[in-house]
Amino acid sequence: MIKKPEHGMTLIVKTITRYTVGLILLFGIYIVLHGHLTPGGGFAGGVIVALSFVHLMLAFGKETAIKKMSEKASGILESLGAVLFVTIALLGLTAGYFFFNFITGHRPFETSFFRLFSSGIIPFCNIAICLKVGAGLFGIFLALVFFKKND
Amino acid sequence: MEFSWHWCFSKKMIEYLLCLILFSVGLYCILVKRNLIKIIIGLGIMEYAINLFFILLGYKSGGQFPILSKENFNIEHFTLNITQPMVDPIPQALILTAIVIGLAVTCLLIAIALRIYEKYGSYDIRDLNKLKG
Amino acid sequence: MLLMPFFVGVPLLGAFLNSILGKISDRISDFIGNLVPATLVVLSFLSLFTLKSLNFTPFVYKMAGWVPPFGICFVLDGLSILMLITVNIIALTATIFSIPYMEKYTDKWKYYTLFLLMLTAMNGAVITGDIFNLFVWLEIGAISSYALVAFGTEQEELEASFKYAVMSSSASLFILIGIGFLYSYTSTLNMADIGKTLLEKPNSTLVGFVSVLFLLGFGLKSALVPFHSWLPDAHPSAPAPISAMLSGVLIKSLGVYALTRVIFNIIGTTQLFLEILVILGSISMVVGVLLALYQWDYKRLLAYHSISQVGYIILGIGLGTPFGILGGLFHLVNHSVFKSLLFLTSGAVEYTTGTRDLQKMGGLSTKMPVTGNTSLIASMSIAGIPPFNGFWSKLIIVIACIQANKFWLALIAIIVSILTLASFLKIQKYAFFGDLKEGLQSIKEAPVLMCISMIILAGLCIFLGLVLLPDIKGFFLDPAVKVLENGVEYSRIVFKNIR
Q: Is the CB of residue C85 less than 8 Å from the CB of residue C48?
């Protein structure tokens, strides 16, 4: 007889989660970093990263998930992602236009096609969007789960 | 192109008709249902119908996914050599934005619905009648 | 002219910096929340002077260097600069007002973040030159306003916000369907390019269908009758500076401006469509003011008057003649000023007395002289009493109606104006004049910052009539009228000026 634990789900789910949650996070990061080569990009990868944390919360209970990423941390990461995005856009002004792709051509930023380190500012924008979407979605989930009646 | 029932139910048009039926189902949900959560689900169904309609707009029959890769893109001459036409990528980008917007609206509506349950005690819209006149 | 992306970049950066730094202390979020609209006011005046030196030919800014129609462009012409100046000045007065007012609510940093996001959306919507970009800014502004209406999280506010959110997102879905049909017909998303392509293609019923969809969508956002039923619930429930922003600029920049830009400059007006606009405008005028006579809640009465005055604007624009469009656009600017002032005075009254019911107040102008006098000025403006600004714009609309041989409409406009005067006399009698009630003996004047913003708007009310002098009119209003008059020439002018 397996005793149902007080927090989270049964032992089988917890064991599988220990193996898969890191792989899901890694998969999400892979989709973000290859956003300029394969379909996906910032938003889809960010959703998968958020899902890995939600998976942790569903299997182990909310206290464990809070220890990994607290509400304050997710709030700060989210805003940091957005500030990073707008900063990259404003830096493009140094090369003439807002949002201009200013990482091109000359050394040390040599570009080529269809490689990982190519196409200018697009990978950095993807990383900023992944931070914002991932932390933002997990923050929404935390807010809805931890909603207490306060009068 | 003039209207006829045969054209309406032909192979090209039946997908668009199904989008319209899905949109009407969502609209019916918003107008008739009395539970707050069912109204939110109805709004979601309407959004899915529109996203589907947009993707159908960009489709070319026999088309391939619109991704440049080493096989079909010639780097030196910047030319594209493909055998089949590529599907239009712009509606796909528009739909990505529309999905994010739909997600944000759904999250906000659910948060408001939770607080309404806390303050009023029920999810029925007939009980929300504080504002009159 | 490299300032144009800052209209969108500065408030966006301010909103997210506020989200990180504002949690530390309230003073920091106050500081960021007031610095950003002040910067934007300075930027918009600089853009006005730069555009005047270019003789008001539209300036096209290519985003990221991509030439339109391959990329998104920002277009600054006479109509955009009029809306920009209006939006930013009203936003500055609203943020100055909210420094003392929002002490009554918790989490001030959340308020300023949402406010700056809404300001980004309004600024972005009036300068964009791409139709899907307009939809994105529309949605950002709408979502932040849903959250701001529900900011106090009391019972009524949540109910109002839910109703507003469901109706407004259905309207956005109709706009999205319209954009989809237009894209499938013209295979481009740039506004000027759509205009050019529509001129070359033969007439078809699809364009008429798309105009009806846009009228549904944008008409709900600008609270035309019969799509007005969210407004009397949503605008009173919001905190007072947000009511001023919503009623003063949001329904105009995301509703009336977007409708006129898309219909006049891209699709092209037909006589039938202008007739429909005139009919809807006149029905809105009458329904708004008749329902307002019955209200006893201060802010709900003001919200019904918003519906009525937007009817005036649509009537003026729908007449189609240059004089009518001048009246409509001038009334748009005037209504932003005096309606925001009215909502700010109602906020000051609510801050000191704690109630919005007119029957519980009385004789407030003895204890609150600044609030009483500015509210009197605003009431006289909206009722159309000379020499305040409301009189001039209503006069121009009435003369334009007579010039277009629509005598019944001119008569209806004058009767509605008299009824507006009646309901504002009701507010003045019950709230400000008369005897002070017993429970209200200990109230004081509103805090200094609130009075400053009310005095700024009252000054604008008095002096805005001077805009009709020929020199200043050529500077400010005439270019905007010329843009709408040009109609579908917009596309040719924009393509000539890409640089």
A: yes
